Amino acid sequence: MFAAQTLAGWGLAGTERADDVLLCVSELVTNAVLHGVPPGRQLRLLMRFDGHGLVVEVHDSGGGVPHVVHDGDEGGRGLLLVAALSDKWGVRERTLGKAVWCEFSWIPEGFSGDRQPRDTMDLDDLHPESLVAVRVTDPLRGRHVPRRPAR
């Protein structure tokens, strides 16, 4: 729901790749909940759109490196979908855990770039014209965890 609302807030709902983005968000978050978030920890979903492409990142504190499964493996085909639907995907190690990301390179027809997301966060390493939405969730309770204001 958060990802769909974010795309709608950015004026991207119903565009040619919106369904691909939503499916990849679902797969990456599901993988993090099932395999990457130890009990009592949280995950973070970050979506960034700069007018030329959209990046989805799911951060978790679990170990291991996710990989695409091959024929004959039971389950675990989520990353196969992510690899097929996105233009690029990968895994970045973090001090604690990892970030699994995928990227969609496209400029939606008629996109004006003047819409802002409802839930934004300024991150120093992002281009100032990027649209950013972040959601931190406690998967055990299935609820949004409010962010603390920056100090």
Can you offer a commentary on this structure?
- Helix 2 packs antiparallel against helix 3.
- A hairpin with a 4-residue loop joins strand 3 (88-93) and strand 4 (98-105).
- Residues 115-130 and 144-151 have low confidence and may be disordered.
- This protein has helices at 2-9, 18-36, 78-85, and strands spanning 43-49, 53-60, 88-93, 98-105, 131-138, 143-144.
- Helix content is 23%, strand content 26%.
- By secondary structure, the protein is of the alpha+beta class.
- A six-stranded antiparallel beta sheet has the order 3-4-2-1-5-6, with helices on one face.
The largest sheet is: 6 strands, antiparallel
Principal-axis shape equals globular
Q: Order of strands in the sheet with the most strands?
A: 3-4-2-1-5-6
Percent helix range: 10-25%
Q: Structural class of the helices, strands and pairings?
A: alpha+beta
Number of helices: 3
Quaternary state, please?
single chain
Report, as a whole number of angstroms, the end-to-end distance: 29 Å
Q: How many runs of DSSP E, i.e. beta strands?
A: 6
DSSP strand (E) fraction? Answer: 25-35%
Pattern of helices and strands: HHEEHEEEE
